[in-house]
Design a protein that fits this description.
Blueprint: E1 2-7, E2 10-15, H1 22-29, E3 48-51, E4 54-57, E5 70-72, H2 80-91, H3 101-114, H4 120-126, H5 137-148
Parallel strand pairs: 1-5
Antiparallel strand pairs: 1-2, 3-4, 3-5
Helix pairs in contact: 2-3, 2-5
Bound molecules: FE2/S2 (inorganic) cluster (FES).
Residues 37-40, 42-47, 57, 59 line the site of FE2/S2 (inorganic) cluster (FES).
Domain 2Fe-2S ferredoxin-type: 1-77
Protein name: (2Fe-2S)-binding protein
Pfam family, one: Fer2_2
């Protein structure tokens, strides 16, 4: 089934079963491999993308749900919030292995859009669904604080 949507501001078309997780379509069909597979059951946040501006887990989002809608992946996230976060990530050496970081950044962008000056509690609460197996949580919080300053 042909499904059309907007991906990173451009038209995209895929031929996929309607219940195929968006994550597979992004990675396998559209070669947007910045979005990562972690758990596949909506528990880790590695697959976070923006769906109509909201942070969503693409491993549990059927591709039919995005028909006619807008999806942004880490490859297409060039907002001021994303740039500030990427700068902070580099300056503070936030990531360790890096695997979860595109999901962390997509969530952090959404947080800063909703709350430009988040408290530590805001950050911990909003980011609690993004798991980092290297436990870089303190640096992630510091990176978000720096980007928000
Ligand atoms: Fe989607 Fe873990 S891979 S939440």
């Amino acid at each position: 089934m042909a499904i059309n949507f907007t991906l990173n501001g451009k038209p995209a078309e895929v031929d996929a079963a309607p219940d195929t997780p968006l994550l597979w379509v992004l990675r396998d069909e559209l070669k947007m491999t910045g979005t990562k597979f972690g758990c596949g059951i909506a528990q880790c946040g590695a697959c976070t993308v923006h769906f109509n501006g909201n942070a969503m887990r693409s491993c549990s989002l059927p591709v039919q749900a995005v028909a006619g809608q807008s999806v942004t992946t880490i490859e297409g996230e060039h907002s001021p919030e994303a740039k500030a976060l990427q700068t902070a990530w580099e300056e503070l050496a936030v990531y360790q292995c890096g695997y979860c970081q595109s999901g962390q950044l997509m969530s952090a962008v959404k947080l800063l859009r909703d709350k430009p000056k988040p408290s530590d509690e805001d950050i911990d609460q909003f980011m609690s669904g993004n798991i980092c197996r290297c436990s870089t949580y303190q640096r992630i919080r510091a990176g978000i604080k720096q980007a928000a300053s």
